[in-house]
Amino acid sequence: MRLMSTIPRIRTGIGGWTFEPWRDGNFYPKGWPHGRELEYASRKLSAIEVNGTYYSSQKPATFAKWRDEAPDDFVFSLKANRFATNRRVLAEAGESIERFIGSGIAELAHKLGPIVWQFAPTKRFDPADFEAFLKLLPEKTGGIALRHVLDVRHETFLCPEFLALARRYKAGTVFTDSDDYPSFADLTADFVYTRMMRTDASLPLGCTPATLDALAACGRAWREGGEPAGVPRVEAGTPAEAKPRDVFMFFISGAKEKAPAAAMALRERLESP
After folding, report:
1. Contact in structure between 136 and 99 (CB atoms under 8 Å)
2. Cα 125 from Cα 157, distance rounded (Å)
3. What is the distance between the alpha carbons of residues 133 and 166, in angstroms, rounded to a whole number?
4. Taking CA atoms, which of 31, 103, 228, 241 is between 20 and 30 Å from 8?
5. What is the C-alpha separation between 167 and 53, in angstroms, rounded?
6. What pLDDT, in 10s, does the model give residues 125-137?
7. Which structural domain, as residue segments, surrounds residue 174?
8. pLDDT recorded at residue 238
9. Cα dihedral 185, 187, 192, 196 in deg (nearest 10)
């Protein structure tokens, strides 16, 4: 099995690759075949967060097809199926978790990125039940180490107790740059996962140059083992362990038609000297 580089890197991307406003020259060239959109997007970006896996199960052959269409150093982040997280008692999610993990995601091999477990905005933090859920998340599938990241959307998660649980089970927490959901950038794992949700349709790149410069600086700081100044944190006075980290930076929601432009502009900044 091929092993990914152990050198931490910053990946920039978008959510999915089939979106009508991206066609006819806005992102995909005019007349570009719909069946080759992943081929194109995966060569302009370095990661994609797959949203379709949240709503329905995919077949192993589908994951294998995605793997083969993307470049060798590309990564797919997958949203876990909603049946595992949209439930009153998370401790009872074992069967749904097993079904998702066993659906064929291992076919992605070294192109499998973090798995996002997204919780409803109404889901409150229950320490015992949430820990029971974390205990159900497997460390590997098909010999591939798994990275889990928690997308929590209720203000009750803005507490040290939640962060301590995430660290105990080596799970990341999504830094959601949004006006609608809790926004905190406390580090809990050996990688950083961000979802930028403020793109503006009136701007050519979806963000101002100053915003893109600031995001690039944040990405570099996280990759090099630091914590950028100015980002919101629950435990602002407690620095995380200083160690290099992989960083995933996705442009999601907001003015979605601008997401590819913003992601490519951020990637250009990160790859320039």
Report:
1. no
2. 5
3. 11
4. 103
5. 26
6. 999 999 999 999 9
7. 10-271
8. 85
9. -10
What are 272's two structure tokens? 């320039």
Domain total for the chain? 1
User: Residue 209's Cα: distance from chain center in Å?
Assistant: 23
Quick check: is 226 in a domain? Answer: yes
> Are 112 and 78 a contacting pair, CB within 8 Å?
yes
pLDDT in the model for residue 114? 98
Q: Does some domain include residue 2? A: no
Supply the CATH number for residue 209's domain: 3.20.20.410
Mean pLDDT calculated for residue range 64-88: 98
pLDDT reported for residue 6: 67
> In this predicted model, what pLDDT tens digit does every residue of 79-103 receive, in sequence order?
999 999 999 999 999 999 999 999 9
Residue 5 counted as domain residue: no
